[in-house]
Amino acid sequence: MWGLLSILVIVSSVSASKQPHIVLMLVDDMGWNDISLHGADQIPTPHIDALGASGVLLHRHYSQPSCTPSRTALLTGKYPIRTGMQGGSLNAGERRGVPLDVPLLPERLQELGYTTRMVGKWHLGYTTSEYMPLHRGFDSHFGYLNGQIDYYTHMTEQKVENSSEVFIGLDFRRGTVPDWKDEGKYATELFTEEAEQIIRQHNKDRPLFLYLSHLACHNGNDSIPLQVPSVRQNTRMFRHISHPKRQLYAGIVKALDDSVGKVVKALRDADMLNDSIIIFLSDNGGMPVPDAFLANTGSNWPLRGTRGTVFEGGVRSVAALWSPLIKTPRRLMPQLMHITDWLPTLYRAAGGDPSALGLLDGVDQWDQLTGKSTKSARQEVLLNIDEKAKNSAILQGHWKLVIGTVQGGQFDGFLSDPGRSKEYPSYDAEEVVKAASNMGIDHDLTQDIVLQLRRKASISCEVKKKVNLGTPACPELCLFDVHSDPCEIHNVAKKHPNLVQQLQTRISYFQTQLVPQTNTPVDPRSNPVYFNNTWQPWLD
Question: How confident is the prediction for the chain on average, in pLDDT?
C-alpha cells in the first residue's frame, strides 16, 4: 500500500512540474473596441472572446505606443529607453536593432529546454544576420522582417526620406531563404497554417514556445492598405458597416479571429492543450483616422487617442490569457500589467527563477494571472519617454501624468467608431460559448457568464465622437484619474500640484536612465534591387 502511494506521489509531482507549452499571439494595431467582448457589436470575435471569457481578460494591460517599442519591451522585459528603441518604429532599411547583448525571451526559454518557433512579424532589426530571429533565440522563423507587408504579394514598400524614391522588395522568408512560392496567398492564413503545422509536428517530449506575430490588424502597403480573403463575402457579412475602409478592416479582424480558433484547435488535436498557456495581445491601439499614415480604422472607443499617442487609446491594449493552470478562470483581472511583465512571468511559468534574470522593468505576474494572488504586483508603469518629440507619460496606481504631445496633438481626440448601433447585429453570446467548446477550452461556459464579463469589461464615458480634433489635449501637461475617468476627459493637474510634482520627479529619474534613440535614416545600401528584389541583412 505504501509503495503504491509513493508511486502516486511521484507521478503527481512529475505532472505538476511539467513545463507548459506557451503560445503567444501578438496582433498588430488592434483597437480596444475591436473585440466584441469589450462591448461593441460591430465586429463579432467569438474565438478571442472565448479565450477571455474562459480564462482571464486583462482590463488594465498597457503596451508602448507603437510597434517596435512594444516588441522590444515584450521580448526584453525592459522599457525601450534602456535600449534606445523608444520613439518611432523601425523603417525598412534602417540601420538599428535591439542591442545584441540584451537577451530576448526565446533565448531565456531555450535555457529552460524549450523549442522556440516564430511565425510572422519581427520588426526588431536586421542590419546584419546577427540581429535576425534565428540568431536571437528562435529555432525557426517563417515570416517577415519589417513593419508591414502586402497581405498577398508580401512586398514591403519604403519611402526614402527627403526623396521621391521608394524601395520595394519581397519581405517574406523561411529562415534565411526568401519565399517567393507563397506569393498570392493571404498572410493571415499562411501564418495560421504554419502555426498549425508546427503544433502538429512538435515533439511533445519538449516544451514548445510558439510566437505567432500577426500582420493583422496592420494595414498593408499604401497601394492597397486593407485586404481581406474575399471582398464579396466580406461585403455581404459586414454590410451593416457603412464606412468602406472600416468594412474591410472588419474582414481583417474576422480572419484573425478565425486564426485564433484554428491554432487553439490544433493544440487540442495534438493533445497539447491541457499543458498549454495561450496569450492573446495587441502591441498598441488602432489608428482610426481613415487618411492618416498607416491608418487601419481600428477603433479605440471610448478611449482617447490613437496608436502613437500615450493616451489610453494608444497604450491600453487588448489582452487575454487562457490555461488550465489558472486557478480562478472566467474573470476580469483589474490589476495593472505592462507588456514588459510577460518575460519574467512566462519564465516563472516555465519553471525558471525570475530573480536570476538580472535587472528588468517587467515584474512576475504569474500569481495574479492564475488567481493565486489578488494583490497588485506593480503600482507604476512608465508608458513612454520620447525625448525627441518631448512627450512622456507615467502611470502610478490610477493617476496618469501626460507631458507634451506628438504630431501636434492631431490624434489626441476621440476619433474612433463607437461600434454601437441598433442597426448592428446584437451580440451573440451563444457563439462565444460554442467557440469555447469547439476549441476545447471550456465545455461549461454559459451565456450568462459571457454577458456578465462583457458588462464588466465595457467602458462607458460621456464623450462625443470627435473632441479637440487637431488641437493638443496636453500641450504642457495633464493629470488624469484613469479609474474614475478612463476616457481622460478631465485634466485635474491644477487640483493636485504635489502629485504632479511627484510624477514629474519619477519621469526625471527615468530620464537619467535613458539611452538616446538610435533612429537613423533609411540606408541606401539596403535597397532590395541589390539583393534580387528582396529585403536582406544588407551589411553582412
Answer: 94
| CA quadruple 12, 57, 78, 126: dihedral, nearest 10 | 100
* Rounded CA separation 381/371 (Å): 21
Asked whether residue 12 is domain-assigned, the answer is: no
Whether residue 304 is contained in a domain is answered as: yes
Q: What is the pLDDT of residue 470?
A: 55
Active site residue 67: yes
Cis amide linkage into residue 474, ω under 30° from 0: no
State the catalytic residue, choosing from 61, 123, 154, 202.
123
| Per-residue pLDDT at 467 | 57
How far apart (Å, rounded) are the C-alpha atoms in residues 537 and 533? Answer: 13
Q: Tell me, yes or no, if the pTM score tops 0.90.
A: yes
pLDDT for residue 291? 84
Residue 457 and residue 59 in contact, taking contact as beta carbons nearer than 8 Å: yes
pLDDT of 236 higher than 80: yes
What is the structure's pLDDT at 87? 93
Structure confidence at residue 465 as a pLDDT band (50, 70, 90)? low
CA dihedral 50, 52, 53, 57 (to 10 degrees): -170
Separation between Cα atoms, residue 132 and residue 138, nearest integer Å = 9
User: Domain range holding 442?
Assistant: 20-458+465-531
In a domain, 422, yes or no: yes
Task: Supply the DSSP string of 420-462, one letter for each residue.
Answer: --TTSPPP-HHHHHHHHHHHTS-SS--HHHHHHHHHHH-----
Q: What is the CATH number of the domain that holds 443?
A: 3.40.720.10
- 91 lies in some domain: yes
- Cα-Cα-Cα-Cα torsion 503, 507, 508, 513, nearest 10 degrees, comes to 150
Confidence of residue 311 (pLDDT cuts 50, 70, 90): very high
Catalytic residue among 21, 67, 141, 474: 67
Let me know if 123 is a catalytic residue: yes
Number of domain units in the chain = 1
Rounded to whole angstroms, the Cα distance separating 323 from 316 reads 23
